Amino acid sequence: MRIVNWLSVCVSLLALGCSSNASTPLVPGAEGTQAAAIDPLLDRFIQGSPASCRWLGLHDACDGKVADYSEAGIQRRITFLQAAERELVAIDQRPLDADGRLDVTLLSLAVREELFRLVDLELFRRRPQFYDELFGVDAYLVREYAPLDDRARALLRHVNASLPQTEHIKKNLRGPLPRTFVETDIGIFNGYGEYLRGDVVKILGGVADVALRDTTIAAVRKLATAAEEIAAHLEKVELPRADESHVLGAPRYKKLLAVQEALDIDLGEFMALAEADLRQNKALYEALEAKGTVQTRPEAARLLDAARKVTAESKVFIEKRGVVTIPAGGKLEITETPPFMQWNSAFLNGTGPFDRSDLTSFYYITLPNPKWSAKEQEEYVMTYGNLLSTSVHEVYPGHFLQGLWARNAPTRAQRMLGSYSFIEGWAHYAEQMMVDEGFGAEDPQNKLGQLSDALLRNCRFVVSIALHTSGMTLAQAEERFVNDCKQDRKTARQQAFRGTFDPGYFAYTLGKIQILELRERAKRALGAAFDLKKFHDALLAHGNPPVPLVRERVLRELGVNSLGLPK
Question: Helix, strand or coil for residue 331?
Answer without folding.
Answer: strand
